[in-house]
Amino acid sequence: MGSIANFTSPPQLFTRRLLQQKTCIQMETRRLLQPSKALLTTTSDAAQQLSTTTLVIQEEKIGVLLLNLGGPETLEDVQPFLFNLFADPDIIRLPKLFRFLQRPLAHLISILRAPKSKEGYASIGGGSPLRRITDAQAEDLGKFLFAKNVPAEVYVGMRYWHPFTEEAIHKIKMDGITKLVVLPLYPQFSISTSGSSLRLLESIFREDEYLVNMQHTVIPSWYQREGYIKAMSTLIEKELEKFECSEKVMIFFSAHGVPLAYVEEAGDPYKAEMEECVDLIMEELEKRKITNAYTLAYQSRVGPVEWLKPYTDDTIIELGQKGVKSLLAVPISFVSEHIETLEEIDVEYKELALKSGIEKWGRVPALGCEPTFISDLADAVIESLPYVGAMAVSDIEARQSLVPLASVEELLAVYDSQRRGLPPPVTMWEWGWTKSAETWNGRAAMLAVLVLLVWEVTTGEGFLHQWGILPLSLHWPTP
Hints:
Radius of gyration: 24 Å
Structural class: alpha/beta
Helix content: 40-55%
Largest sheet: 4 strands, parallel
Strand order of the largest sheet: 2-1-3-4
CATH topology of the domain at 226-363: Rossmann fold
CATH class of the domain at 226-363: Alpha Beta
CATH architecture of the domain at 226-363: 3-Layer(aba) Sandwich
Strand content: 5-15%
Number of helices: 18
Low-confidence stretches: 1-56, 389-404, 416-439, 472-479
Distance between the termini: 34 Å
């Protein structure tokens, strides 16, 4: 079930097998993961059952790997962090023919963006609090799991900064973990977030014999879980109470954006999941007699390509023009405070809102270590455990994960079979006046400009140097 190399069965076959085994697995879960019930009896049989259950848990070393973005902890970390970010092909998707430009382009972009990014991080204390908060979440998750009779080691693996995913995997191997639950800390699945982290993890697993043989499962998203929805609704309810006329407050969900091509061409479920997530939260609020108007927009776009719309900044201006006077911002795609909540939302968007005619501004905090949220994550881990350990290791077909850690494309196929149908991908390369062609023709033009920029950086000659925009010499990182 944990083997990457052995993922060969079609998603439909795997789904049928999963449904057939679900009932017996659930029964086994109740028996193995609820030893506290045996404490209510005093018979020798009950004592023996408790002893057996404890033995089963002790024989396995359970690990939980939390995946997150990462962030620079000091201002000196900003430029190398940005390089790691833009060197990821899931962030900047170049055609295969031009993949050799990925690292040079990332180096150029990181140098150009570093000064402005440093200003942002300086305004929130000189670095991102993401690692500190994620470490606290990991610690609390371990405590909740232990309280629920499932002792487990919880690890943190960041995609673009320390502790890197490779560092977490090293600890997992050193600790001798035999069953691993991979839990991205992104409520909604996207190729650029969870997908990127899982793609890296896949490559690490494939090259390591210990990891290939370690049983594992992946929880790709959890935005629809009751605990998460209730925790978010409670935070919104508390912030609404701070307004004088709470019923007139517009609830403004602001989600991190992704390029539109990810959704239309690559089948990214992010937009559909985000919209459903907002609907679920509003349904929960309606149960609490809260029927405020609400809207959803997307923030943090980068570059000239089209991103998911509506954009957060444009929407704020439009709401002000329509006469909205009170706005409550909800960072819907973030579970930890970082640069995009503390600086982009709290400073930039608040200032824009006040200039646009909105008089009262509020912001819902990120979930952080909110107990209902962390307890629900612990339940998600526990519910996934039968899919890790209840099947025979010797049976190759039975070793498939709940959602397998294989290629992101294969993951999306299984992911689709268990949820909703994704929009069919359009042709990835087509000439003429089609929607796809316009996208790729535009990218080709952009790429030509980028090639000229790279040439300038490598040769030290050109109009950007003559105008003083680029320094006379740059040193490339060692591959």
